[in-house]
Write a structure and sequence with these properties.
The protein has 249 residues and is an alpha/beta fold. Helix content is 43%, strand content 14%. It is built from eight helices and six strands. It has a six-stranded parallel beta sheet with strand order 3-4-2-1-5-6, with helices on both faces. α4 (113-125) links the parallel β3 and β4. It starts with 14 loop residues before the first strand and ends with a helix. The structure holds 3-methylbut-3-enyl trihydrogen diphosphate (IPE) (2 copies) and magnesium ion. One 3-methylbut-3-enyl trihydrogen diphosphate (IPE) binds next to α1.
C-alpha cells in the first residue's frame, strides 16, 4: 500500500471513535484460538492511540467490550478482562509520557475487581494530562446509557430540580456517560462489518462513518491515517447545501 501523506493542520476530527472488530477472525485465519487475536489487537490499540495523538485528535473513544460481549464463552471473557488489566498496567508509562488522559464509559461496576481497580488507578494518575483524552468503552451499551440518562433526568423532574419544558438536547447530552465530551466526528469500524452494534447511538448522530475490511490486529498507524485522509475529503453539510458550506453561510 502506498504511504499517504497527511495534512495534520487542517480538518482533523476532534473526536474519533473506533469499533475495534475482527480479532477472532484474524486468529482463526492463522489457525489459532480467538484469544491470540485479542492479544495481537493490543498492538493496534497502541498504534492507534499514538497516531491519533500525533495528528492532534482531542478525544479517542475505543470500543473495547460491549454489554453484549458478556454473553461470550466465560474463558474468552476472562481472558479479555485479564488482558485489560495487564495492558492498563503496562501502558501507564506511555500514557504519562504522551500526556494522555484516560477515561472510561460503560457499566464499570460489572468489571472484575482487578480490572476495575487497575482502571481507576490509571484514570486517577493520568487525570491532569491534557494532550488527548483516551476514552475506553467497557461493558458499554448505548441503549443502557440512554436508559440511565432517562432515569437521572426523571429523578430531577420528580424532585423539582428540573422542569419538563426545560428538557432539551443538551439535557440529554449532560446525562450520558460522555457528558463532558464533544460529539463524535468520525466513526471507524474494522473487519468489514457495517453496523453500529449499540455503540454511541446518540453521540454519532452526525458523525462521518468509515468501514474498512482490515481486521483489527492488522490495523496500524498508516491505516488510521488512510481513514483520516478520507475524513478530510468529506463535506459535512449538516443539512445545508454545498454552496452554503463553501461560502460559510
Ligand atoms: C473485537 O473482535 C474484540 C471484541 C469484541 C472484544 P471480535 O472478538 O469481535 O472478533 P470477530 O468479530 O469475532 O472476528
Ligand atoms: C462490537 O463488536 C464490540 C466491540 C468491538 C467491543 P462485536 O464483534 O461484539 O459486535 P457484533 O457482534 O459483530 O455486532
Ligand atoms: Mg466481532
Amino acid at each position: 500500500m502506498s504511504k499517504i501523506t497527511l495534512n495534520s493542520k487542517v480538518n482533523v476530527p476532534n473526536h474519533v471513535a473506533v469499533i475495534m472488530d475482527g480479532n477472532g477472525r484474524w486468529a482463526k485465519q492463522k489457525g489459532k484460538f480467538r484469544i491470540f487475536g485479542h492479544q495481537n489487537g493490543v498492538k493496534s490499540v497502541r498504534e492507534t492511540i499514538e497516531a491519533a495523538a500525533e495528528i492532534g485528535v482531542k478525544v479517542l473513544t475505543l470500543f473495547a467490550f460491549s454489554t453484549e460481549n458478556w454473553s461470550r464463552p466465560k474463558r474468552e471473557v476472562d481472558t479479555l478482562m485479564s488482558l485489560l488489566a495487564t495492558s492498563l498496567k503496562k501502558e501507564l508509562k506511555s500514557l504519562q509520557k504522551n500526556s494522555i488522559q484516560l477515561r472510561a464509559i460503560g457499566d464499570l461496576k460489572n468489571l472484575p475487581e482487578k480490572a476495575h481497580k487497575e482502571l481507576k488507578e490509571v484514570i486517577l494518575k493520568t487525570a491532569s494530562n491534557d494532550r488527548m483524552i483516551l476514552n475506553l468503552a467497557l461493558s458499554y451499551g448505548s441503549r443502557a446509557e440512554i436508559v440511565n440518562a432517562v432515569k437521572s433526568i426523571s429523578k430531577k423532574v420528580v424532585n423539582n430540580e428540573l422542569k419538563i419544558e426545560n428538557i432539551n438536547e443538551k439535557t440529554i447530552n449532560n446525562h450520558l456517560y460522555t457528558f463532558s465530551l464533544p460529539d463524535v466526528d468520525f466513526l471507524i469500524r474494522t473487519s468489514g462489518e457495517q453496523r453500529i452494534s449499540n455503540f454511541l447511538l446518540w453521540q454519532i448522530a452526525y458523525a462521518e462513518l468509515y468501514f474498512t475490511n482490515t481486521l483489527w490486529p492488522d490495523f496500524k498507524k498508516q491505516d488510521f491515517y488512510n481513514a483520516i485522509k478520507e475524513y478530510q475529503n468529506r463535506e459535512r453539510r449538516y443539512g445545508k447545501t454545498s454552496e452554503q458550506i463553501e461560502t460559510n453561510e
